[in-house]
Specification:
The complex is a heterodimer of chains A (269) and B (297). Chain A has 269 residues and is mainly alpha-helical. Chain A contains 13 helices and no strands. Chain A starts with a helix and ends with a helix. In chain B, strands 1-2 form a two-stranded antiparallel ribbon. The chains are: A mainly alpha (269), B mainly alpha (297).
Chain lengths: 269, 297
Amino acid sequence: MTRLLKYLTLLIGAVVFAYPFLWMISGSLKPELEISGLGLWSSQFSLANYEQVLTRIPISRSFLNSLIVSLSVTTSVLVFGSMVGYALAKLQFIGKGALFLIILFTMMIPFQITLIPQYVLMVKLGLTDTYAALIAPTMMSAFSIVLFRHFFIGIPNALIDAARLDGCSELRILFRVIWPLSKPTLITVAILTFMTSWNEVLWPLIVVRERTLMTMPQLVTIFVIGGEAESQLGLLLAAATLLALPVIIAYAVFQRYFIESMVHTGVKG
Amino acid sequence: MKRIVTIALSLKKSDSAGFWLVSPYLIFFLLFVAYPLVFSFILMFHRWDIVTPMEWVGLKNFERLFADPLFFKSIFNTFVFLLVHIPLQIIVALTLAVLLNSATKMRGLFRAIYFLPVIVSGVVVTILWQQLYAFDYGVLNTFLTSIGLPRIPWLVDPDVAMTSIAVMATWKNVGIYIVLFLVGLQTIPRELYESASIDGADTRKQFFYITLPMLNPTMVMIVVLSTIGGFSLFIEPFVMTGGGPMQSTLSATLYIYNQAFYFNHMGYAATLGFVFALIILAVVLLQRKLVETESVS
């Protein structure tokens, strides 16, 4: 009896979390008048709403923009983050302790305080309406440096010394010796960074006004609040589905890594 | 001997290598952390619309802030949000995690489904829930009327709107905490429960005297992250309500955005950002003191 109750509760939970998504996808395929119904099935499924969205807003271009931005940010966070993490974990240099304290301190700064000055900086550098404005402020993350440092400390020094004796440069050691040993941390940082970057919407809204440069969540936001969708539910749901789909597909493939990344770090993306 | 000399030499060489490796971060830090912090401090004492030159106004921005009803309203709204969001999140996450922990069948599948909203963009969730919450033809009200209950004015009643947003935010984020609680539950040693049941403690007692205290670190994390999330709330009210009705969903971050980008009050927006940041730090410190127990950490 309690067993039944337990699985029933879990099942209700699953319906609560999954049903809205199913309803969204089904609604995006339905004709306008049928959408508000509770059911998922319609005899008149069509791609009409998607065709409308594709012609009204440059959403495939925004997909490309988001991809460029998120991939650049992720690559940069991995490369530079591991460089700093490696230096902090395995090299000796003056000011190392102070630098680590500074990095820990930057993690505590609420973004509300730097938001406006960062925008002003972009204006002063003439970077508004460029990819650079979207990428530069998140090119490195204190959080990833701390994660890398923490993992690298556990790697035996003997490996690094051996590589040095073979004449490897520090960069070569990092990418040829350390990286292959650090796959779990690299994957964790990559997933968290990519997801955060892909879903970011406040910063793009601030620094990009040019429609062809907008990221996908930004363009969809503008589509919804700018009145272009003319409050047609089907169009809104189709745009939302297009925005959700890439992440859901990635999640379906790498589900275990997604969840483990979050557990590993205990921080939301 | 030669070997030692070589290692010593390479160590010496690595000294400059260390500097070289961290130098990109130093540039990044100066540009995107240090400069903004310093500049935000300067901005707070100026009036500036970003086009005309900056004008020194002394403490005017702070005087204005403490007389600004919308500033206080946005803090009040954030606390309303947190008051609903935090307890709801803990109850739902704990319930589902405890059930999942004792369930063996399909645990992975359930976990994956509960986690789904976490990875999806807030924009998607907001668009979706805007439809679910619609007054006349929304899915939730359609459901309520079909079982004979009255409609709920989810987003149109100023007394309800922020609660609705808090419920939606819980739906989106609770998956993280289910997974974290699950990890926490699995680290509690079985012997604790065994010896407790030998001592005659029933499941209820075991839950309150073993499970809950052992989950304290996760609890602290939920409270702190939710608080930071509450003050960072932006896209949900921006898309759903625009801060309305009657400013009831105006969040801290949305208010900064409005002052900066609708009214071009850069100085005042920077002041708001600074004060909100102080409030966040103060609240989080206070929470840690109140929620964190010393025995487990």
